[in-house]
TrEMBL record:
GO terms for molecular function: electron transfer activity; FMN binding. It comes from the Archaea. InterPro entries: Flavodoxin/NO_synth, Flavodoxin_CS, Flavoprotein-like_sf. Residues 3-159 form the Flavodoxin-like domain. This is Flavodoxin. SUPFAM superfamilies: Flavoproteins (SSF52218). The lineage of its organism: Archaea, Methanobacteriati, Methanobacteriota, Methanomada group, Methanobacteria. It comes from Methanobrevibacter millerae.
């Protein structure tokens, strides 16, 4: 069972989660970069609008070949209660047919993961992927160590090693 973790991270929290998952699940990992400038207050506002409208963006790598993988994790921060433009763009460029998929999202402490997870699920299911699990983490006021510990807790609680056969 070959596992791949694909993630986008703006300020690093989702990246910490993805790297912790990759280490414990012996999974390959690919970080998607958004080539649009997302820095600063004004761009944060525009980013929320882009996410809300599900606007596409320029990403690197521009697509990912999933052929070799049985299980794919997709991770994104929540922006405006939606997945990020980078992940929305990527999903439309991949062939999800026959793939098992696990979704994860990070958010502020008052956020809800439901709309983001639901939207990811909708888009990937439409393209033939099968969502087998999903989880989320509230990252506000958490140190990198907290995020690592919380992710390790999720790996245990959801028995994620079972899906990857490790
Ligand atoms: C443009 C933007 C919009 C956001 N919108 C939301 C939101 O609607 N709900 C929420 O709970 N958190 C929101 N957040 C907070 C992020 O989801 C949270 O900080 C996340 O952990 C960041 O992950 P990262 O460090 O991997 O980029 C937003 C952050 C940004 C930059």
């Amino acid at each position: 069972m070959k596992t791949l973790i694909i993630y986008y991270s703006g300020s690093g929290s989702t990246k910490i989660m993805a790297r912790t998952l990759s280490m414990h699940l012996k999974a390959d990992i690919i970080g998607i970069k958004d080539l649009k400038n997302r820095e600063g207050f004004a761009n944060r506002l525009l980013s929320s609008i882009d996410a809300f409208r599900e606007s596409k963006t320029e990403i690197s790598p521009s697509k990912v070949d999933l052929t070799d993988y049985d299980l794919i994790y997709v991770g994104t921060p929540t922006w405006a209660n939606k997945p990020t433009p980078a992940i929305i763009t990527l999903i439309d460029r991949c062939n999800w047919k026959g793939k098992d998929v696990i979704l994860f999202t990070t958010m502020n402490k008052d956020g809800s993961d439901e709309p983001t997870i639901e939207r990811l699920e909708e888009k990937i299911s439409m393209r033939g992927g099968r969502i087998v699990e999903s989880f989320s983490l509230k990252t506000m006021d958490k140190s990198p160590e907290d995020i690592i510990n919380d992710t390790e807790g999720i790996i245990q609680t959801l028995v994620l090693k079972m899906y990857s056969g490790v």
